[in-house]
Design a protein that fits this description.
The complex is a heterodimer of chains A (about 130) and B (about 375). Helices cover about 40% and strands about 15% of the residues of chain A. Chain A is built from 5 helices and 5 strands; from the N terminus they run αβαβααβαββ. Chain B has a single domain, classed as Porin. A 16-stranded antiparallel beta barrel of chain B has the order 1-2-3-4-5-6-7-8-9-10-11-12-13-14-15-16. The radius of gyration of chain B is 22 Å and the shape is globular. Classes of the chains: A alpha/beta (about 130), B mainly beta (about 375). The interface of A and B includes residues 60, 78 and 88 of A. Chain A: This is Phosphate ABC transporter substrate-binding protein. Chain A: Keywords: Signal.
Chain lengths: ~130, ~375
Amino acid sequence: MLKLIKVTLLGTALAWAITSFPAMAQGGAVISQSEIDSARVTRIYMGQSRELIAVNQQEGSAVRQAFEANVIGRSAEQIKAHWSRLVFTGRAAELRQVESDEAVLEYVRSNPGTIGYISDASKADDLNILLEF
Amino acid sequence: MQRVFKLGLLSGLMLAGSAAHANIEWSGFANIGAGFTSGSDEQAFGYEDSVDFKPDTLFALQGRAELADDLSITTQLMSRGEDNFDLGVEWAYLQYQVNDAWTVNAGKLRLPLYNYSDSLDVAYSYHWLRTPQAVYRVPFDNFTGASVQHNAFLGDSMLSTQFIVGNFNDSVEVADSQAETDLENLVGLSSSLNYHSWTVRGGFFYSSDVSVELQTPEFNGLMMQLSGAGFASLADDLRVDEREGTFASIGLNFDNFDWVFASEYTELEVQDSFLAKQRSFYASLGKRFGSWMPHVTYAGTRDQQADFALATLPAPLAQGVQQLTSSTTQRSNMTSLGVRYDVRAGVAFKFDVTHVDDKALDTRSNVVSFSVQTVF
């Protein structure tokens, strides 16, 4: 029993060691050259549909956290767990990841059949806004 | 067989290397687990009463090379503690995405017997520290052949179906010893229907020729004694030699990101042999509290011992046959209490206590384990 307690304490201490919670963004938009039903955005970002090629923002960025919380409706950990199931079983390949709103805009503008999201809806200009979050 | 996979891997990577625009994407996962049983005479899930790291520890590296938009090669290299960290090719396959709905894979693939078969080793992707061992006990995970995957959206629901065809040949653990095992003409279908938080899944697998060459002195001795005493036909009936085998599973899952429920029931039968008809089940319930997720699982085995007419047999031989058939018959209940803590995206810490009540051997044991599981 003493061994059990020691091991439990050790493990719990380890688990607590690393944590971080960045803040949320406002005014984001899901953008594309195409027009699709907003319900399909989630399917695309959950790797269930390939009707548009999705581009993602950096893990841990405020815009990605806001998108995942408000559009997908799941936490970063849940989405990571879901995607690990797809990537390591050959059901889907990891989404392209870029570093900024500008990089998303450039990618979506120059590639028809793609979809992305940005933190500031006013930058969308000529692109379709499929959803605001 | 091992050599064929190595060759396949090598030629696959060479092919990937020679393709003009092929970039190899690397990703990986690792489980670092430790555990022990609570008593000196207890053994379960590969653990004994001193702390051991091997049973639930593994490292895997996956390389994926895109040869064209719709064609890719994936190999997964794995080092498992339970195999003394020998590096092996877990998967190696060529994938062709026919269109948005159809995908074809060929090579060394995971056999999708269970709901969590595909992601079995990626423990980060599920809530348990390890999948319920009462159910997840077929002693091999992979096969060589092809699979065809189809996804269909029907309104709010998604129907995903997988057909497989191939064979299996390797040495696996049967009745506590290694046995050369062969499954020929292996075909199967697994299908799952997802509707909002609910997923219902079913699978059926069939092999026309299952052979298990048990080579223990006890087994060989019993076979010789039976033949010598004029019961050669009984000896033949006991052997697993080109027998029909079937595996069926059903499962129901619920996940609304608050509560999680998972359940499966499976049946494995190899016709006319000393192997028991295996029946297993589990039901698991968990609830998320932020980064914490406590859960409880009840699982069990209800095997049916192979039945042979032993009335005309001399007593020692009847006893030998009885021992052989009961050695593959499991009757147990397992209760697990566990918790998952998401340290951050990609890293989870898990703790699990499982009580095993083995009714066949009349033993009870407790297994305590913890693990850090990551994807990267």
